Amino acid sequence: MTLSCTGIGIGTSRGTAIGQAHLLQRGRLELMPRYISREEVPDEVDRFRQAVSEAQRQLRAVQKKIPESTPSDIVAFIDTHLLMLNDAALVEVPINRIREQHCSAEWALQMQRNELAQVFDAMEDPYLRTRKDDVDHVVNRIQQRLLQLEEEDPEELKGKIILAQDLTPADAILMRHWGIAAFITEYGGPMSHTAILARSLGIPAVVGVRHATRCLRHGEQLIVDGEQGVVLAAVDDDTLSQYRSRIEAARLQTAELRRLIGQPAVTRDGRAIRLMANIELPEDIERTRSLGAEGVGLYRTEYLYMNRNAPPDEAEHYRAYLEVIQGLDGIPVTIRTLDLGVDKQIDGAYARDEQVCNPALGLRAIRLCLKEPRLFLPQLRAILRVAAQGPVRIMIPMLSTLREVYQLKGLIEQTKRSLARDGLPFDPDIQTGGMIEVPAAALSADAFARELDFLSIGTNDLIQYTLAIDRIDDAVNYLYDPLHPSVLRLIQMVIDAGRRQRIPVSMCGEMAGDPRHIPLLLGMGLTELSMQPGALLVAKRTLRNLDAARLIRQVGELMPSIDAPESADRLSRVLREAS
Q1: What is the tens place of the pLDDT at every residue in 514-564?
Q2: Residue-number span of the structural domain to which 114 is assigned
Q3: What's the structural domain count of the chain?
């Protein structure tokens, strides 16, 4: 067996596929500046408008081909791109560039793309930063029409492993409809929209495989392991046989997982674990409910603020939250307040003239909300009001000092008085919790636990801040280690603080939904996990095969000396045996 020269990429969805490589001539286009005469400008503007119209027509055609059974959150990706094709930033601004700078339509669009990319690159939240992909996908679709590039024949793609520099969400949806086996891309990360779609659609995928289109050959047989992030080429018969057996076993496991819907998340020795879902869009509601989540441990509200010139008002917040709690029909919902930074410039009132050198450490999340109450209070009022209609909690991101908690409590009390004066119903006893994602907050977890009703460990940022690495930066993401002794100590501090103060502690980061880490979290005493809906059944199966008392004893013995190599080795052995 030989590993392809591309090495290992980032696995974005569980599953394995075997098939012939199909090199897709699509991806990031290399364009050079081209300028035109004044007389050519009107025709160039018309050519650009025609390309935009053709791109819209293509996406509408994709919409018609999507099966009715496709989850609405997947369809929403196409809707988003259609909206962007009507956005002045991608349509009118390039036309103005053509008229003012006498440049080609391709170059005008590329210059605008580069400016928009700089805005997204400055965002501190890794998930939001990857939304630059949406801009690239829409821009590339227009460029392909400008350059009159041919589309692929669906019949040629059936059962193939797609090999491309990058894929758009529309590509992923169509190719799933056409029956592709898997895909490999040179660009992208685990939180890009294409990666998210691969997970939702159940397509094995490996992204971020550098130079894949040069090292792998069109037509050669490949194995794609979407869980391990591995692409194999030129394999022998024994290896092929092993992977075929793995694919058949996975098919049987999927049927077995579906039978867990409605079954309790209880360990072998009878310990009940609360499994909840992380959601972002209203479209996530049906899947969360159908998979039997016991609650929503993290409802991200940032989507309400995106792609607009002014922040949402109280009425818009209220309608969005009411739709969620009514759709979940009594399932408790934890709403996380705004987790954006001032660098996103929601509207001109919140922009700053000076350059933000490190947005991840700047004015964001609760810091921004406390500094700009007129941005925060409409959301706070809406949450308090909707809590009168169903079980709702407030969760505050990026707490680092108790002063923030005291200020927050003051704002909540002020908001309650304001709602009472207005004669609007609200929940006077709403629970307020904090996300522990800054090391300082974890170290002071006891103090936070005394002031809050619950804590939730946000491992994505906690790990990044503790280890001083950006997990979507290819140069350093190999250092992203959830099992680093320092990370484990901080997590244990938060769990212990919750137990001492008798308040619930959950985890809502990616670590919570990873079956490799669930035995460790259980052994550390965690009893509430919140994850992407697609991970719920795998987590439940994992938990039902574990002995909680045994893991608590084993992990408890190892944690005090977790820095020692022998303790780390023993912990790895314990986790392997548990899994």
Answers
A1: 898 999 999 999 999 999 888 899 999 999 999 999 999 999 999 988 888
A2: 31-148
A3: 3
Helices and strands counted in the chain (H then E): 24, 16
In Å, the largest CA–CA distance within the chain is 80
- pLDDT tens-digit readout, 106-163: 999 999 888 888 877 776 665 566 667 778 778 888 888 888 776 666 677 889 998 8
Residue 215 known to be catalytic: no
Helix (H, G, I), strand (E, B) or coil at 299: strand
Q: Which amino acid, one-letter code, is at 562?
A: I
Of 204, 150, 155, 151, nearest to 178 (Cα)?
A: 155
Query: What confidence tens digit (pLDDT) does each residue in 208-237 have?
Result: 888 888 888 888 999 999 888 889 998 888
Angle at 491 between CA 487 and CA 494, to 5 degrees: 145
| C-alpha span between 347 and 312 (Å, rounded) | 11
Exactly one of 81, 103, 369, 508 is catalytic; which is it?
508
Q: Are strands 16-23 and 161-164 parallel, antiparallel or unpaired?
A: parallel
From 193, 317, 369, 517, active-site residue: 193
Same structural domain, 461 and 405: yes
Q: What are the beta bridge partners of residue 336?
A: 395
- Residue-wise pLDDT for 422-454, tens only, equals 999 999 999 999 999 999 999 999 999 999 999
Q: Which two tokens stand for residue 79?
A: 């809707």
Based on the domain organization, do 250 and 266 belong to the same domain?
Answer: no
Look up 508 and say whether it is catalytic: yes
- Does residue 452 share a domain with residue 379? yes
The more confidently predicted of residues 234 and 199 is 234
* Cα four-point dihedral sign 191, 197, 200, 202: negative
* CATH code (residue 394): 3.20.20.60
Of 432, 261, 426, 419, residue with least CA distance to 337: 432
Q: Between residues 126 and 577, which one has the greater pLDDT?
A: 577
Asked if residues 369 and 353 have their Cβ atoms less than 8 Å apart, the reply is: no
Contact by Cβ (8 Å): 406, 372: no
Residues 329, 345: Cα–Cα separation, whole Å: 35
Q: Give the Cα separation of 510 and 514 in Å (integer).
A: 7
pTM value surpassing 0.70 = no
Same domain, 166 and 247: yes
The strand pairing partners of 455, in sequence order, are 434, 505
Q: State residue 423's pLDDT score.
A: 97
With residue 206 as reference, give the H or E element that holds it: strand 205-207
Task: Please say whether the beta carbons of 427 and 469 come within 8 A.
Answer: no
CA 62 distance to own-chain centroid: 24
List the structure tokens of 333.
């919902």
- Look up residue 441 and give its two tokens: 């907050």
